[in-house]
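Lab notebook, bench 4. Still working through the backlog of constructs that have no structural model yet. Next entry is a single chain of 1129 residues. Request: give me the structure tokens for it.
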Amino acid sequence: MKTHLHSLIAFILALAPLSAQEEGFQSLFNGKDLTGWDGNPELWTVEDGTISGRTKGPDQLTYNQFLIWRGGTVKNFEFHAKIRQDGNNSGIQYRSKELPENGQWSVGGYQCDVHPNPPYNGMIYEERARGIVVQNGQSVVADPDGRRWLVAERDPVAVDGTQWHDYTIIAKGNHITHKIDGKVTIEFSDYDEKARSLEGILAFQVHRGPAMEVQIKDVRLKVLPDGGVTPFAKADIPSDAQEVGKPKPKPKAKPAPKAAGKPQAKAMPNQNGKGQAQAAAKAKPKPKRPQEVGPAIGENKATPVDRIKALDGFQVELLYSVPGGEQGSWVALCHDDQGRIYASDQYGDLYRFNPPAPGQALKPADVKKVPINIRAINGMVFAFGALYAGVNDYEQKAQSGLYRITDSDGNDELDKIELLKAFDSKSDHGVHAVMPTPDGKSLYLITGNNAIIDGGPYEGTAKDSPVPKVWGDDHLLPRMPDGRGHNRSVLAPGGIVYRVDPDGKNFEIFASGFRNIYDGGVNRDGELFAYDADMEYDFNTPWYRPTRVVHVVSGAEFGWRNGAGKYPEFYPVSLPAAVNIGPGSPTGAMFGYGAKFPAKYQEAFYAFDWSWGKVYAIHLTRDGASYTGTKEEFLTGAPLPVTDAIIHPKDGAMYFAIGGRRVQSGLYRVTYAGDEDTSPIPAASSEPSSLVQLRHDLEKFHGKADPKAIEAAWPHLDHDDRFVAWAARVAVEHQPVDEWKEKALAETEPGKRIPALMALARVAGVCPSHRPEDFAGADTGLRDRILGSLLELDYAKLGHGERLGFVRTIEIVLHRFGDPEPVLIDAIVAKLDPSYPADSFEENWLLTETLAYLQDPNAAAKGMALIASAESQEPQMEYARSLRFLKTGWTPGLRKQQLNWFLKAANYRGGASFEKFIEFIRNDTLATYTDAEKKEHAELIAKKPERKSAIENLGAIFAGRAPTMWTLEELSAAAETGLKSRDFENGRKMFSAAACYACHRFGNAGGMTGPDLTGAGGRYSPNDFLDQIINPSKVISDQFAPIVVTKNDGTMITGVVVNLSGDNVTLNTDLSDPNQRENVDRKEVKSIELSKVSPMPPMLLAMLKKEEILDLVAYVLSGGDRANEMFAK
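Model written out:
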């Protein structure tokens, strides 16, 4: 049986393109132990699938020690290892020799240094020999006499060494290259025959001296053909080369040595054929703009149109490849009343040009710099006779903020600059788009969560802002900030949409709680929409929120908080998205009004995803007082870092740019050439529905006190439409609290009492993180009255939404006012505990958090039961997060179950901060253990988890089974009559066991690198669904298709583009693990093609029995609804 299983797993792995080994590489580390390696066991261990080397301090070692690979020697090779280091430096020895005379595990020779100081990181240091040979950023030639000559120099590759980075060593003959994350750190040609080494051992270093830690994984070696030693006669040393270690010579004072024979103009051979000649070329005087701008792909131009796919009938033209050295990388577009287009470099100037005629392209001479002293415009619009610009210069060479730019003398040149409002912005989550409000009287200014208005949102904005200034984190348990430190100190209100008068005098907070919206658009109904960012570090955590299109209404709050504090959509103090998109990096957004497109695409809201290279057409429909919608891929390319777009008023074409973060920029035009009618749609839609009008009427009370507000808003606090109820509650919160406090406490209808008390808690209480220095203390009497009023309600008889509001209000009260007396705490526990656990994840989320905070003695057993019954990692992680501070109710069995869950969770996968979050939860949990518990469970606490891939976990679950080669015909026939009386729980179990959650979203859980399966029952018949699983490569959605990158040296990498920066493109090479990434230098890319092989491995059903497959099919096609008729007995 085991033979069958192992054969199946091996077959699946062989067919899984994203996890396959690159051709020719061998793995030198098995991820489990140090087999094949030799070193001091006091220094070297294997932990969590990584080699770990640690020293304790200056007194531990008298010499540097090494972990030596005993698999042979290395000569010509390419070596890769992912390394992170903290404390003193480490290094990779190669072509080295053992030196037992200096002590056991002592080694000397070439070393790729792993060092916290950038000039030394990735350099060549020759251990116990020549010392520093080549520093990071240098290309050096050593002549036969041992003198070293600097032939080229560039900026050192600078990275945070405490994070994972890919170190590469390529040695061919006497030529050596080091790289970090694909970027060259050094090039060295060694003609010193007495000192050099062409073969030797491989080892890793721990350094004597201060305490240090180095972690190493993904160790791979590829043996290259022998040869490659070239004579010094072929060395290309410029005449002005400087001798390393000597003072810089005066011109012609000491020329570099000439190689014997005829002077050579050849490039020195290296791994990609570029060599020293190109490196020397880079050392020439830099152009006007010092920063490097990398091409979007291998060519020195923008992505060609044959790599861009558009919907049928639409055509894409590449109009202009922006010369990066002169005109930068474009991130914002707009047009003036003459139809001229303005484009802004993210870190530089503003440009103007006329769009070219059909079939024509732009030339650099056509693009004119606007002669004004402004830079880093991230969003702009012509309105009120001026160009309004959102400047976001986090390089801090200019003041970020909102500017007004005008032509003061009527000569058709912008020449007057006014700073209307200054912002402090230290990242690209700063000041972004500007657009007119629908009434034509004001502007919307869109900002990310790192844009801080001068004076802060309290002092720097109008008192009558639509958003009540009562925001807070409102989490009962201590904050769990991002494990990588991202935005740890940034608190509510997060990203803001401001409403600003044309003179910039009145700044209102119109809506808040965003992460990083870059742009938006107003529809024909006068409603604002925006495209907000996800936090990719949070992938596969319960608090991960995908990129999403949101309806930005007056007084809105969308719940961004740092770390694990982000509000889920079910929180009643946060509004939901209109459309959830998935992973991405939102940039431009707009409606298609004015385009010569079919009506459907004139109406569409276009959302631009920079990292995944997609433009979505979002089709919105009215849904009560708001909207819902569907997404459709309008354009896609790889890479296609789309930034902004306009619909041109004269030709009706869409013009869009790619660029940002100094990648190669380009300008494109999209036109429609199909057969559908492109006549303009009406300028205005139909009259607002009664619910929309009701919402608008309530919004009139936002930001001002009005004696009519309470009477108008109160009846709608429990409205079935969430946006109407929101508008009503915000209207109440803006009124003087003494006018409605008693009404809230005495309200008899539960549906109104709960939101009224929530509003009272928000207005009368202050979040501890936002309390002023002169805070006089919480009104504990009011706290007890609010809690008492809530506890009068019969929790068991409340509806689902009312229950969520009930518990959430308790959390807000306890957070803002502090804990009441024990008798009241006991009353809360007595009210909630009988209903715990509940039927929904949402309610259990809130109940677990609240009861654990209140130290309910039953919470341990009930919470661990929820963890055990949850099939996916997200709810398990959420319950574990809430239980981490619970000290009561634990038995030895429950503690053992808890510790075993942490071992299991080590095999869960998520974003870059996922492992840190698990670590935080575990550390907080262990801090609650008594000394007796620590002693009793010492062995389990010390046990290290065994990390496995999703496929390996699948094999472990079904160990002992022989695979069945199911055919579509066989299973489809079984499904025709077999989808009755199915087992819901077994179907849910099979969905988890088959690793479906690794890539697919289903309900509130799962990854997002494959299609969302929540609505699969509306898209697939049983036969079609089975066909997708059995034949995953038959039809691959463009949205999820990986690309195949072929490099100049012939190597191929398969993955999806997830990030770009300068010359690097980052690919996720294993969609079941967001952290499996590889950087590729765009200049080394030969071609990019869509993969014809699905990232989903075939034969995933082979280990399942027929009845299990039918349960799985029923579970998915039912949408996870246990009441579906397929489960009726």
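Notes after review: The radius of gyration is 32 Å. The domain at 740-947 is CATH 1.25.10.10 (Leucine-rich Repeat Variant). Flag for follow-up if needed.
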